[in-house]
Every structure is written in structure tokens, then in C-alpha cells.
Amino acid sequence: MFGKRIILCLQEKKEQGGMPELKLPDLSMPEFNMPEIKMPTDFNEGSAQLVEILKPVEQLSPIKFGQMHTVIKDINKEAGDAIASYVVFVQIIFLLLFVAYFVMGVIAVCVDFAAMDAPCAAQSWVWLYVLLVVIIPTSLGFIMLAVEAVLKSIDLKKNVGWEVPSVFFSFPTPIVYVVFGILGIVLWSNMGDECDQFYATNHGMLLTMFHIQVIVMGVASILGVITVWSQAVQFITSFFTKTEESVKSA
Q: Is the pTM of this model over 0.85?
């Protein structure tokens, strides 16, 4: 009975103007255009491309040669252009070394985990210091990179009429470096000979990373404070200059 109804329905449709044409969905694959990769033609262009690739790594690194070069260029454009190629070379070498340093720090923390319960760990804090220096500055750099990317995507200058000055992105990290630099110097200077010998004998890799981190944090804190101070001076100067120009134009 049900089959006869279907046949009658189909005959009715045919008499009215034929069967409706069945349209299959478009199963063709969408076109995928690979981005054009431009090969560098000289050393400067290749270095610029490599620096752009390593830019996220610089945000995580304690010493930011890119920011320092920007400050120098803002103060004296001719001097900044003159040392640009040298800064790029040093920047690339340092960022590659930073990646190796970070990997070695993680390995040292994992391999020398037993140093956390060492007899002199309560006074030296070597394992804890290496762990904190590996985690906190890198995490802070990642957070600042994410915040900067979000604000850039929002485009505050276009939508609101103002943007967050770059000095505010640079300000938090030098404070962290100063704290860890001072703490590392205090721990290193107060470490006794027996404790130092214990770490050198049983946890040599961890002790080496501790010494490297103290030196890096000390240098990074000095350069970071100088960079932030220079950026703050540039920001204040440009702010008052714009204010004077707006008052004169009014």
C-alpha cells in the first residue's frame, strides 16, 4: 500500500513538469595559497628576517638588544643606523644562546631534583633559585608578549585615539631582574666553602646554572633599568612636546 502511494506521487510529479533535478553539494577542495617566501638577497635582509622570526624569543629573554637599539635610535638616529648591523648580529647570537641556556636550565632542575633536600639547601637555595629564574622571568615575558599582542589586535590608537606607551611593557621585567640579581648575589656571597664543594661534587650542572643565572640577572637588571629609564625620559619629553604644540595650535 505504501509502495503504491510512492509510485502515484512520482507519477503525479512527472505529469506536473517532470522530476526535480537533484543538486549534489560542492565537494571541491578550497584553494590554499601558500604565503610567498621571499629569499634574502643580502646579509642585512637575511638578518632582519631572522630577527623577526626570533622576536618572540627576545620578549622572553632577560637582555633585550632590540629595545636597547630602539632607544639609541630614538636618541640619535645616525648612531642607531650605524650600529644596526652589529646589533642584529649580537642579537641573533644572544637569542640562540638564550634558547640553549633555557633548555640547560630546565634539564638542570629536573636532573638535580635531589638538591632540593641537600644539607645546605636551607641556606643556599640553589635549586629553588634556578627553578624560579627559569620560570618567573620567562612566564612574565610570555604574559607581556600576550598582552601586547592583544592590545595590538584591538588597535587602541585607531578605535580609542590613544595607545599604551611601550615603556609600560618594558617596566615590569627589570624589577624582577633586580630582585633576582640582588637575591642571587646575596646567596652566592653567603654560600660556605663546604656547601659550594658539595654542589660542585654532586650537582655540578645545577651550580654552574646558578652562577650563570646570577651573572645574567645582574647584567639584565642594570641594562633593563637603563633601558626603561631612557624610554621613560623619551615618553615624558614627547608628551610635553605634544602638549606644548597642542596649546600653541589652540
A: no
